[in-house]
Amino acid sequence: MLNNHSHYALIEHYLQQQGELAWVMATIVNKVGSSYRSPGAMMLVNSLGQSQGLVSGGCLEANIVLQAKKVFDTEQARYIEYDMREEEGYAAELGVGCKGKIGILLQYLTPGHTRLLTRLFQRLQQGQTSYLQHRFVSTELDSLNTLHLYADSGEWLMSSSLDQDSAQHILPEKFVNSQNKHQTYQLAQSALSYSKISAPINLWLFGGGSDALPLVSMAAQLGWQVTVVDHRSSYARASHFKHAKHIVSVHPDDFCDFAALEKADAAILMSHNLQLDAAWLSILHQQSKAQYIGLLGPLERRHNVEAQSNIRDQAWLSQHVNGPAGLDIGGELPESIALSILAQCHSVLHHRTGQSLSGRFINKPNTDSETFTE
């Protein structure tokens, strides 16, 4: 995986190297106002002072490494705050652009943490959502180093501390049923942070031509897990798609791994063959819960693919199939098309509009020519 900042990548990195060095995990557990990273973001620091991951835009990481040194010395967790609103504070001296406050909990990782993170990583591999609980304010300082893991249903699974039991821990039902990724709660004299940890996005590409190469590479940089499917001997070669998680050589008529396909979050049809795209679209309609399906080519081609797929569910086609796939950003090269498609896919999966963050158009749209991906 090319991504170094996702929960999946960070935990994988730790589990591969945790036996060699001591480690501290820094997690954003509280936030007021604007910040570069949101609560739940993590960073790892080892006893050599090497770090992995980001909890800011690169401004605070050096100081966090220094703070981690104190945690290594005492083997006790520390809660620190960076207030970018204070004109004379440390964050202000760095010229941090965000005007908010973040609280970061630094925990000394023990064998108990390793067992919990191993369980969490296994759940991420299986595409399961989990929740982590941090206690960042407490009269019992030892409790700050304890981490709790919950299932997506809210069920308590385990703790990094061996003397904990499930009767003591309940994930707030209101939080589980919401779309929020983070929530803080006050409990007596303690402050608790709950973070939603989602599995990497599972993207399937149907068509392994050369134009799929930048799409796979960019998706891998985002931390997505990509499966490339193509039965044609000159396509989807493993030597070309080094960043794909899986490469499957199978014709749609022979495909039977429906359990794997059911876990797909998104799919892109790019075989450049009308019959193949229609066949795969039919399978996706029957077997997949993908929120985004991209289809290359102009609108007329989309109508032809949909007609050959024999899908009668027009509501499903309208809701899930995006063709021509991508956002109108210009460009004709495979890299530009990949950027366009992934941007649209990303916005759909994260329930965003895909519009300009400034709320206005910078450039006047060119209406003289038709733009589409093919």
From TrEMBL:
Residues 22-83 form the XdhC- CoxI domain. Residues 203-345 form the XdhC Rossmann domain. InterPro entries: MoCofactor_Util/Proc (IPR052698), XdhC_CoxI (IPR003777), XdhC_Rossmann_dom (IPR027051). This is Xanthine dehydrogenase accessory factor. PANTHER family: ALDEHYDE OXIDOREDUCTASE MOLYBDENUM COFACTOR ASSEMBLY PROTEIN, MOLYBDENUM COFACTOR INSERTION CHAPERONE PAOD.
